[in-house]
Design a protein that fits this description.
The protein is of the alpha/beta class and 274 residues long. It contains nine helices and eight strands. The protein is globular.
């Protein structure tokens, strides 16, 4: 039996800013890295939490997930009732919109929760509790089925999705941090610092791991300058390859070619007590 949802949704209203294709980099990463997990589920359920003033991101999430998991369903959840009402005409088979917040008012534990540009307005010391609440709602791991459980993807991007940084979390907590960009718009990797999620954005200071990572990334980028004659993609790949000597990069060239790099959360997590 599921517990009764709170009388009022948990959370606060966001600005609601959204644009078509804003979250395409995050969606493509989810499809590539979590698609097999979704396919293993009999009825894979994804939640677009805080989709904003227009439903574009939820509509796009359904299309991109179904390219790798044809049975996937998406529920868009918004804390502002007027936004839910405006999204209702876009409902279709596999896509619903509901009023709610961090309690995630869906009938079963989701296999994916995407929360993009939701926590930027919160204080840093509120993030851990929100993460814990959302992770507790995820589908549990099932070792017998080789399942690591559901995935929470929480992060921030610019208005048109050129630069994006997100944290991926499972039922057990944070796993990785991914940096993604349209390479043609990048002067140096540390330009991505302005899009760090709330858990990290105030930690980009000397002495913190994320600051050291971006410093090393800039140095690797500078050292890879001769590869720029072959294009920004080749320069990025070379820079990331150099990073792997000192940082636990978890992906490979297939993702690097997309303007991405993923690092284990433990290497970038804020220093305790700092």
């Amino acid at each position: 039996m599921t517990s009764r949802a709170p009388a009022r949704p948990v959370g606060t209203v966001t600005r609601g800013t959204t644009n078509p294709n804003r979250l395409r980099r995050m969606d493509r990463w989810i499809a590539a890295t979590h698609g097999a997990e979704l396919r293993r589920a009999a009825e894979p359920l994804a939640v677009d939490l805080g989709y904003g003033a227009a439903p574009w991101t939820a509509v796009e999430l359904l299309r991109r997930l179904r390219s790798v998991a044809p049975r996937a369903r998406v529920v868009g959840v918004e804390i502002e009732p007027a936004r839910v009402a405006a999204a209702k005409p876009y409902e279709r088979e596999g896509l619903d919109f509901r009023h709610g917040g961090f309690e995630i008012p869906v009938p079963r534990r989701p296999h994916l929760v995407r929360a993009a540009n939701v926590l930027r307005q919160y204080d840093e010391d509120e993030v851990a509790a929100v993460w814990q609440r959302l992770c507790a709602r995820l589908a549990p791991a099932d070792p017998a089925a080789a399942s690591r459980g559901g995935l929470l993807v929480e992060g921030t991007c610019d208005e048109i999705g050129r630069r994006h940084v997100w944290v991926a979390l499972g039922p057990e907590g944070p796993r990785t941090v991914t940096f993604a960009t349209r390479l043609g718009s990048l002067e140096r990797p540390s330009d991505l610092a302005e899009r760090l999620p709330k858990a990290l954005i105030h930690r980009n200071v000397p002495g913190e791991p994320v600051h050291a990572f971006l410093r090393d990334f800039d140095r690797a980028w500078a050292a890879a300058a001769p590869y720029a004659s072959y294009g920004a993609r080749q320069r990025w790949i070379r820079a990331v390859r150099e990073l792997t000597a000192d940082w636990p990069v978890t992906d490979g060239p297939a993702r690097w070619r997309q303007g991405e790099v993923t690092v284990r959360w433990g290497a970038l997590a804020p220093r305790a007590g700092a």
